[in-house]
Amino acid sequence: MTLETLTTFFGWLAVLNIGLLMVMTLFIWVLMDWASCFHARLFGLDQRDVRRAFYGYLAQYKLLTLIFVITPYVALKLM
After folding, report:
1. Structural contact between residues 64 and 18, judged by C-beta atoms closer than 8 angstroms
2. pLDDT, position 27
3. How far is CA 60 from the centre of its chain?
4. Of 34, 48, 64, 76, which sees the most CB atoms within 10 A?
5. What is the dihedral of CA 44, 47, 52, 56, to 10 degrees?
6. CB–CB of 76/6 below 8 Å?
């Protein structure tokens, strides 16, 4: 596998992950009341805890995307 192939791979992976993150953020933003109420009833939790879990999930996904996708892409582009 060449550096050009790896760079292209990480570039498209970054596009897909950022797009997925944007879609998930939009869904959570639009459907937060319904989703938090549904999951709170489903799992017997407080709605505030469910909302906190949703935002924690998005933060972890964003951090993992930055570390494992964006950083290697930038490093390969700089080589």
Report:
1. no
2. 93
3. 7
4. 76
5. 60
6. yes
Q: If you ran DSSP here, which 8-state letter would residue 2 be given?
A: -
In 3D space, the residue among 76, 77, 66 whose CA is nearest the CA of residue 14 turns out to be: 66
Q: Map out the domains of the chain as residue ranges.
A: 3-78
Judge contact between 54 and 32, C-beta under 8 A: yes
- H or E element that contains 16: helix 3-43
Q: What is the reported pLDDT for 1?
A: 83
DSSP-assigned states of every residue in 66-77: IIIIIHHHHHHH
pLDDT, tens digit, 9 for 90 and up, residues 34-52: 999 999 999 999 999 999 9
Residues 53 and 35: their CA atoms lie apart, in Å, by 12
Q: Which residue from 72, 64, 65, 66 is spatially nearest to 7, judged by alpha carbons?
A: 72
